[in-house]
Amino acid sequence: MRDQDKSAIAPNKAALDDATSEEGALSEGGEGVAGEGVDIEPAMIEAFSLIAQHTLPKCGACTVPYGCCATSHCEEAMAFAAGQMGVTLEPTGHPTLPLMGPGGCTAAPHLRPLCSIHACDKHFAGGDDNWIQKYCALRDEASDRLEEHFAKRGA
How confident is the model over 135-153, as a mean pLDDT? Predict the structure, then answer.
């Protein structure tokens, strides 16, 4: 693992500890009420956290910050979190995006996998090959961890 990749993991140590605690499967900034009986691997939590961190600066700096977010995406994330992870996500009260808070989505990245791996065309504009290569590697890692999660659950 390259040094810059290691530094991206270090700030997430507390989030990973929180995510695997008795209180539930949440990471830093994530909100919700944990259900019972769903074991979520720390590697999956970390993989989705890393890709969300990679795309967040571009999403937040877009002409319309978080412009790809939609009510239906929040609803899908809430259904996924409840059905697949045993976590009930609490709406924030935002008028159109139930999971949107002042700094972006309040749901932990592994509880909103489609949103976490989303990258619009603007992410790829400008030919930043290093960003694109890292994105593809992080996306593949997150996808692999999610597939393992489903395989363990028999889903």
Answer: 94
